[in-house]
Amino acid sequence: MAKLSLSYAGHLSDRVRDLYHGVVAPEGIDLHFIPMSPVQAFNRMLRGEFDCGEMSFSTYVIKAAQRALPFVAIPVFPSRAFRHGNIYVNRAAGIATPEDLKGKRVGVPEYAMTAAVWARGALMQEYGVDPAQIRWVTGGLQGPGRRPLVETSIPGVSIEHEDTRGLNDMLLTGEIDALIAPQTPPSLRQGDDRIAYLFADVPGVERDYFRKTGIFPIMHTVVIRKDVYEKNPWIAVSLLDAFEKSKANCMAELNIDEPLPISLPWIGQYVQSIREVFGDDFWPYGVEKNRTTIDALCGFLHDQGIAQRRVAVDELFAEAIHAAGQIKL
């Protein structure tokens, strides 16, 4: 029997590299992996251009809350990141602590983007900073033109869109006091001393957050177009298994001592330090190992007024995953 041909769009990382090169192949599937930036993949998946692909997790949960999902997800999480280190400030704005963000003007590329939801969630949970206490400005990081995946209007929260300036430039000039963005602003990368991280010890703060909450924030999940899934529900388990195998190969490579698998000195010692905090499975797929994190995101989206209802974790993933018993991975 011929394999089912499926197109997949997503960013290329070590965790999915073997899928891209065909070293790992989903059973019964001829997967055509098309690498592209996450934002490109999200927009094009929402337009239905691919059979499956990477999707903003917050966008997926928002659509689930609306009961308007055009696709179904599998519990694969290609992108994760802590977000305390993605809060940047203009030194002249007088922001020394998270609480100093109250009353300030803060830029963010998209209000409902997953990175911003996690950052605001930590500010609310850990420091008592409510989003309604901040004036938000959305727009492109390096230039104008970025439009949100999800239009957001929340009673009691000030959100304006900037069409003429990039947020990086606005942070430099003080037109915004702070910035939350998944990419480091170019001004900070270039060493401009007007810009600083809100948290001086980013790794320390983020490790403490994980130890306290058990949360390693999920940014993206993998989705299958609903019409494709409904014709071939078995592909959910096949894809999940293949993503697991590709990730396992990546993690095994990190154990290689000589020659170095990654072009970084002391990588072995760094990997060991990660295991001491997270355990051996520090990038887990599946639902049960991620239930606390997924539930936290669902809660933050509802608490921040972005999702119209609090979505339950178990309604987020393909029924075929439940039926196969894979939900307890």
How would you describe this structure in keywords?
single chain, 329 residues, alpha/beta, D-Maltodextrin-Binding Protein, domain 2, six-stranded mixed beta sheet, five-stranded mixed beta sheet, 12 helices, globular
Descriptive overview:
Pfam families: NMT1 (PF09084). InterPro entries: SsuA/THI5. There is one protein chain. With 329 residues, this protein is α/β, with parallel strands linked by helices. The protein has 2 domains: 4-80 and 218-328, D-Maltodextrin-Binding Protein, domain 2 (3-Layer(aba) Sandwich), CATH 3.40.190.10; 84-213, Periplasmic binding protein-like II (D-Maltodextrin-Binding Protein, domain 2, 3-Layer(aba) Sandwich), CATH 3.40.190. The chain contains 12 helices and 11 strands. The chain has helices at 17-21, 38-46, 57-65, 114-127, 167-173, 186-189, 202-213, 226-231, 235-253, 267-278, 291-303, 319-323; strands spanning 4-10, 29-35, 52-56, 71-74, 87-90, 105-108, 135-138, 158-161, 178-180, 195-197, 220-225. The strands form 2 sheets. It has a 6-stranded mixed beta sheet with strand order 8-7-6-9-5-10. The chain has a 5-stranded mixed beta sheet with strand order 2-1-3-11-4. Helix 4 links the parallel strand 6 and strand 7. The mean pLDDT is 95.
